[in-house]
Design a protein that fits this description.
Distance between the termini: 64 Å
Radius of gyration: 25 Å
Strand order of the largest sheet: 1-2-3-4
Shape: elongated
Number of strands: 4
Length: 346
């Protein structure tokens, strides 16, 4: 089991280490679908927030696992890229326990099976009463998968069938499908333009990225819950895409492309304006090549966004000359009240 990258690692271990019968993966799809084999199945339980950029990947992973006949479940909650509440982990391990009982590997306890069934059914009813028909229908589908070896489920299937016929479910399904299609196209745009921008050092396209993030900020305020979720997923996806590209370029064994890195750091100040690390990296890189205009611009943007660690600021690598400049200290004086060096006025 694991979260994010640790979960991806956990999901490939059963392919190489015998005796691992199940994986609980939080906020991550299977690490490598190509190495999965129907001859060596394991129980995969994914847990993901509907605002997490991994949400769509985990939906696709489920389809692949179903084709390979891997037993699997997908638990959903309303949040982003974070650990789920303990209750979801409890559900995951109960599902593993029921599977183990069904195989005869663990002592069968019918009372536990029935208790779990009733708890999930109550949860599904609550979700529907909270006007979350897609979540309710999804949970009913998971219940059918989990409890199929234990009881007749005709009544539960009828409940799910009736839910699917409701106008609220149909409207929600149409809305989510439209959003997922738009999200897919937008992600392709992000990939294409990021590759083009890095190859051509296209600083002029920073405005396009700024516009994209502004549009996502508007969608976060939308009355359509599925648009809100998509906006948060896309921002998370953009950040993850840029971070992965930074890792690839920074790990080049030959020559690290500092211009490309600086451009990526600039993009990060747009997609994650409160992540101060990237402003500091730009200031360092720009100072190293004596591009003090760029360094000053990002210094002020950094301070505007609430940065207050003066000691760290005065210790940024490559800024020995930059930080004794009057312009540098004037900005520190303006936003942090007191500069380390005096600001001389003529």
């Amino acid at each position: 089991a694991g979260f994010s990258n640790a979960a991806r690692f956990a999901s490939i271990l059963p392919n190489f280490i015998k005796g691992i019968n199940g994986v609980v993966s939080c906020a991550a799809a299977v690490g490598n679908l190509e190495i999965l084999s129907a001859k060596n199945p394991f129980y995969f339980i994914g847990i993901v927030g509907r605002e997490d950029y991994n949400f769509t990947d985990m939906l696709e992973t489920r389809k692949v696992l179903d084709k390979l006949k891997f037993p699997n479940q997908l638990l959903l909650f309303d949040s982003g890229n974070q650990w789920p509440e303990n209750g979801y982990l409890v559900e995951a391990f109960r599902m593993l326990t029921l599977a183990s009982m069904a195989k005869g590997e663990t002592e069968k306890e019918i009372k536990k099976v029935n208790t779990f069934y009733n708890e999930l059914l109550t949860k599904a009813n609550t979700l529907f009463s909270e006007k979350k028909p897609l979540m309710a229908e999804h949970l009913l589908s998971e219940m059918i998968r989990v409890h199929a070896p234990w009881m007749e489920l005709d009544s539960l299937k009828d409940i799910r069938k009736q839910l699917r016929k409701t106008s609220s479910f149909k409207a929600a399904k149409r809305s989510q499908n439209a959003v997922l299609l738009k999200e897919s196209f937008t992600k392709e745009d992000y990939i294409y333009f990021l590759e083009e921008d890095i190859m051509t050092y296209n600083y002029n396209n920073l405005g396009w990225w700024t516009y994209q993030m502004e549009e996502l900020s508007k969608l976060v305020k939308s009355e359509n819950v599925y648009e809100k979720q998509m906006a948060r997923r896309l921002r998370g996806y953009a950040n993850a895409l840029i971070e992965d590209t930074i890792d690839v370029i920074a790990s080049d064994d030959k020559v690290v492309d500092m211009d490309a890195l600086t451009l990526l750091y600039m993009l990060k100040t747009i997609t994650a304006p409160k992540n101060y690390e990237y402003y500091l990296n730009i200031i360092s890189n720009s100072s190293k090549i004596e591009d003090y205009g760029t360094a000053l611009f990002y210094l002020e943007e950094l301070l505007k966004n609430g940065y207050t660690d003066k000691d760290e600021l005065y210790a940024v690598q490559n800024t020995a000359l930059f930080r004794i400049m009057p312009e540098f200290n004037a900005l520190v004086e303006k936003y942090l009240n007191q500069a380390r060096y005096d600001v001389m006025e003529e």
